[in-house]
Amino acid sequence: MEHFDIVPLLDYIDPDESYQKWYQVGMALKKEGYPLKVWDTWSRKGHKYHDGECAKKWISFNEQTSTIVTGATITQWAKEGGWKPQPTGKPITGRYYFTKAMLIDPSTIDPDDFHIPSDTAWKPYEDAIAYLNALFKPEEHVGLVLHSFLDKDGKWKPVEHGQNKRTCGQIVETLKQYKKTDTALGSLQNEAAGGWVRINPLDGEGAKNANVTDFRYALVESDNMPLGKQLALIRKMELPCAAIVYSGGKSVHAIVHVDADTLKEYQQRVTYLYDVCNKNGFKVDIQNKNPSRLSRMPGVTRNGKKQFLISTNTGKKDYLTWVTWMEEQSDDLPPFVVLGDIIEHLPPLAPALIEGVLRQGHKMMLTGPSKAGKSFLLMELAIAIASGKTWLQFPCHRGKVLYINLEIDGVSCEHRLLDIYNRLDIPLFPSVENITLWNLRGAATPMDKLAPTIVRRCQNEGFSAVIVDPIYKVITGDENAASDMAYFGNQFDLICKGLGCSVIYCHHHSKGAQGAKKAIDRGSGSGVFARDADAIIDMTQIEMREGEKELPGETAYAISGTLREFPAFDDFAIRFRHPIHILDPTLDPSKTVGSIDGNRTKGNITQTQNKNDRFEEFVRILEMHLSNGDTVNQNNLAEEMQVSASTIRRYMKQANDPVPVYEVISGGKGGIKRVNELF
Prior knowledge:
Helix content is 32%, strand content 18%. It is an alpha+beta fold.
């Protein structure tokens, strides 16, 4: 589950409202893993703030308190203060992880020069001061460990928690005063062991993870390559280092910004940081993940070797800047193509899978109303591709098909395919060997999880097409949000690219009659649906007179196409005779439900209808286009309503009396606009 950040909710809570509420906010923040600074920063906004009071109370919060307060309390108070939860879609690029994070080939990196300062040039106390000032604020408590013991493995280990009562400012002032680290910090118990410092500020009461007040840094360390190579890789990766220190042993220690708000976020960011390092050949010591981790303190010696400061504040300025930069460096996008380099040797176009409609490796969407037999039509298409037959009026090239059934009972799906085979009078063999079923009813997962699984499972299957029926079962995010649907559409691209096959999927119409809309706008949800696919085949119900129905309950549909790669085809009509669809050139595809011709057929509109009804039809169609963000002008409306331009101008005049509602705007992005949208 993703971390929900409650810090922004504090803006809706007054720190001066009551002592009890102020106190319980602090308890809740600590319970949810936030550092002291979050509570202190919020408290400073009030007039009752007293310096140091938050820190004292913070120490007293523990699980034994009679009343445990959680983040849910803050959420409720924020709602009472006016905060409203906002729906969020899944970002195209996650905050913590993205798939490709390899930036460099470590075998091509030359080691950096590694210089150990001479005894005369090295000033240990200056290293210590520079290091402390780079990592800590003057008022923050610093954890030092100068005592050690020799463990059974022959290595020196730090003893217990060490010092944690002094602040950075106090230690720095002592260093400046005595100019000796042993006097200012304390003498090393065993010089052979060296000295340590905790990488994150503490509360002065202990040295465990619970005592960390700010999840600011992580330790990056590796001892399986030469020191110069370690330095080169740290710098090449642009790690946001507050400090880099030589440990006096086999490694350099990089103190790297992670700038987390909670322990959970800290762990997520450190995991990602280490993953990037490992992918780039810097094998990190994974024992360094906890925020109270010790690192080597510069300014002391270790078995005769200097623990010295190499640099401070190198690489990117902070964690998020580094993540953004890393993503840009490793975006895995195709290279630029100079047209002049390829114009004489253009690669061939992908062959057609469905002649005149869809190329191999492209995407197609079938849209239609509920219970129109969309699944039957997709099964007919699967059989047509598997057998190399014609679908509707379009010849198909033979290939293997994966049919992902998300809605129908598995056995029912299998029987349905057999019924369609029998009605189409197509031999089962050998084409049935080209159809693979994947029945996922009750086991569907969101498409961003399903797409990689499809690619992995089908890598060597040689499918020409993957059919997903229907997509509402696997939709990711809000279907009305353009960004969510762009991310959703990218999952189909992942399949197309990963398998070199076409992806075909079906989607339902929005509510209401669709005849007055363009075919591209009939699908439910964001317009991204209509603009993402390379081909859209739409089926909209036709109004039939009783004499045109050859069977009881029979329905008919107009087939329209919106094509990216091929010329448009004329609309045509089909009848649905369970379990197949058949062409019918005797039906008029313009008489769809909701269209002018369809309504005339139904009897709602006649040649002698009341002028007010026609005017209301004009307003309804115009408002539909404006709500969809379409650019619409008087000529478009005249053509759609099958009336003259002068009639549209008369309707415009009528609509603007007595108060102007619409205005005609000239220019490249002109058309009819609402008056209230012009300002």
